[in-house]
């Protein structure tokens, strides 16, 4: 069994292996797409392949869409050469269920794969031809938040961005310059409308994308590469829109267990590859089943019937509310609590933490008991149902290789939005946040984690975080096993509104967090004892 257009024509063996095949003619859809693409996607990685690719398959199978997606890669060209081309752009999608079973299907909607290289005439001219086409309705992105960044911490352009500015629209290198150059091509060949849609997992993603494209265009105008009319085109949302979106689906790297299962079924060449850009990718993609995509419905040239594939089409305010619901109450605060306590208690898998009675109770209290009274309700999704699925289905899935050490990365940059917003809501509603217990316990746990000593008294390595040097200096002198070594070192951290968005003493919970922290440094086993006491 080979994952190829010719290989899947031998349907009997695939069906015998329990693998669903496309019900449409993959070659016919591919031919129609290449003639006049309607949907281009930048960022040809895993979440795109299994999530966005499956949406397009559902629409084609349901007769709602006649064409597939044109895939463009701007960063890691090995992905096209090693994962797309050898398998005729087909994807083997594997859904990892909590009961240990898997759902497997071949996706056939990814019809063309192009490397965005302006120095290669054939590929660059093909992209320009696609963007000049009046039928093109949407350009979507999963390039990670870093893909939109143009400037470093000092406020100056990255050197590769400056090179793109200096070289102009005929020789772009990085993603934002490539997209801006292709939009310029569209402007020159009729200025047809288009939706430019970030699907990356970051706040106000459409705004980030729009700002980067406009910045590039302005810099090119200063140098005389483009005219003022191009900026007017990009700034007119009736011509070029930048819808906001919220995406949610845990898509870990390809699992060895899945690879072995597919090989055992008789499928050839399933081994993952590590590209020259250190991307770990395979002909198959494995991911959890639950998935959410909410999109601001602003498409000036029309769009596929995405709602028929389970996408929530709504307004910008609702997109913002869904994201706030997820990030401040229903998922991210729970993840962070499990991350810091998981490291201190010696766990390496989130699913294993969900078997721990105290940790399961902790996230239940943070999400349902303390979060729900002040949750942002977007109307289109039930916050209570969402958090219940997180606690009962998503986090406990033993086949999701999700590690607390990974999630603990950059916690200082996250606690303000993940906990600070709920604390501020309690202050606004009740005058202070003294009703809270689990959230202060989570914050005490983060401070305890920063000591880099586990509950057995053994040292462990902290995950990367830009504030680690500053935070560890603040905690100097504290020793696990010597609660008397605490002499108020947390006060500077807990009162820092730049970290939490609010002074936690003014919110009425600073002293309580200190008390919990002192209990957690009493000696080996004190963290566990403290969790039991408060939960």
Essential attributes:
44% helix, 23 helices, 535 residues, alpha/beta, four-stranded mixed β-sheet, single chain, six-stranded parallel β-sheet, 11% strand
The global form is globular
- Largest sheet composition: 6 strands, parallel
Are there runs of 5+ residues with pLDDT below 50, and where? none
> What class, by secondary structure content?
alpha/beta
Q: Return Rg in Å.
A: 25 Å
Q: In terms of quaternary structure, what is this?
A: single chain
Supply the number of helical segments: 23
Number of strands: 15
Q: Report how far apart the termini are.
A: 53 Å
Question: What is the typical, i.e. mean, pLDDT?
Answer: 96
The portion of residues forming beta strands comes to: 5-15%
* Helical amount: 40-55%
Strand order within the widest sheet? 6-3-2-7-8-9
Describe the protein's topology.
Layout: H1 11-16, E1 19-20, H2 26-35, E2 39-42, H3 46-61, E3 69-73, H4 78-84, E4 91-96, E5 102-107, E6 110-115, H5 121-132, E7 138-141, H6 159-167, H7 175-188, E8 194-198, H8 205-222, H9 228-235, E9 240-241, E10 245-248, H10 256-264, E11 273-274, E12 280-281, E13 284-288, E14 292-296, E15 312-314, H11 316-330, H12 332-344, H13 350-353, H14 357-371, H15 383-394, H16 404-407, H17 415-430, H18 438-449, H19 468-474, H20 491-494, H21 497-500, H22 510-520, H23 526-534
Parallel strand pairs: 1-5, 2-3, 2-7, 3-6, 4-13, 7-8, 8-9, 14-15
Antiparallel strand pairs: 4-5, 10-14, 11-12
